[in-house]
Amino acid sequence: MDICSQCILPGGQAGVALDEKGVCNHCRNHEPVAIQGEEKLIRILEVVHNNAVKYDCIVNISGGRDSAYTLLALVRDYRMKVLAVNYANPFTDPQATKNIANMVRILDVDFVQFELKNNIHERILRNNILAWFKNPTPALVPAICIGCKIIWPTILKIARKNRIKCIVNGGNPYEYSTFKKVLLGVTDNANLKSTYLKNVKGLVKETLKNAHYLKPKFILTTIKGYLFSNPYALGSRLISGKLTFLDLFHYIPWKEDEVLERIQEELGWDYPRDLDSSWRFDCRIAHLKDYMYLKTLGITEKDDFYAKMIREGMIERDEAIQRVSKENKLHLNLIHDLFSQLSIDSINLENELYQ
Ligand SMILES: [Zn+2]
User: What is the CATH number of the domain that holds 339?
Assistant: First the structure.
């Protein structure tokens, strides 16, 4: 497989095309991510800061590195009164659970944790994993994460109940995988709103091709997932009223070393050292997604993420190559654990791998 001579993406699939010099279309058309600046952030925080209410904002934490840094920055750097919120995802890595307990204790913030009812996350995940293996396609890997797409109505409810006017997210602007969008027919430079609509259209189109996703008992949850998949989704915008949504790293630069150094030193944050990567370990479904992308595309979301970091001048290409060769390892034991948690015994991953 030929890979781009500037980044590390392989040509010939998922919207990646190499030219005669071996450079991919994403590198040729790259425009640096625009960071809006700390001044603008501070102005917005001043507006949402309110002495009359108990909390200025919500930070949704997962135990992962970027949301940990976001909570740290809002509390220590910007002196906001933060309510930390966490969805008790049944697939949370034990280290992420420890990280959450540590950061809440060390920063001394109030903390609300909520669950989804009727084991819906487990049930729909099980259904969609079984559906995926009947017809493995990279476009529908995101559909297995529908459980985390239906948490927004609850977070918005918590905001309303506490009269909170602002929700701060910790996603960084380099982690939205380009290939995920391309596989659903979304162009890379589309803005957040049109990305959302096209994403939904693409997901619906792909879902309709595989009837196994469409069990009647899960259809309502699936629609809810598409409507509320993130704060910018149609349903969220309709019910969020005058809420301000902020993505911290769209205002201040995301610097991987600084994020890791500060959360480790100040919050006692850590990641499972046997995984080699400090990114996206917080939900154990990620290991299955790596498997699904490796099987169908030969790359994972990490290749895309590091390719973006190369284009932004954040890491050298050699380092990215080293990282993916180390990190794109399958953790079959963790996928087996996930399957046994879901009572899935009909899929033999080892056999699947060599087909
Ligand atoms: Zn490239």
Answer: 3.40.50.620
Contacts for 315 with CB less than 8 Å, ≥ 6 apart: 306, 309, 323
Q: How confident is the model at residue 187 (pLDDT cuts 50, 70, 90)?
A: low
Q: Considering the entire predicted model, what is its pTM?
A: 0.91
| pLDDT score of 352 | 61
The tokens for 160 are: 């309303």
Q: pLDDT value at position 114? A: 97
Same domain for 2 and 98? no
* Residue 11 Cα to ligand 1 middle (Å): 9
Residues with CB under 5 A from ligand 1 (ion): 4, 6-7, 24, 27
- Domain assignment of residue 324, given as a range: 34-344
Q: Is 250 found in the same domain as 227?
A: yes
User: Cβ contacts of residue 199 below 8 Å, gap of 6+?
Assistant: 181, 184, 186, 229
Ligand 1 centroid – CA 206 distance (Å): 27
Q: Residue 178 Cα, ligand 1 centroid: separation in angstroms?
A: 12
CA of 27 to the centre of ligand 1 (A): 4
Query: Structurally, how many domains does the chain consist of?
Result: 2
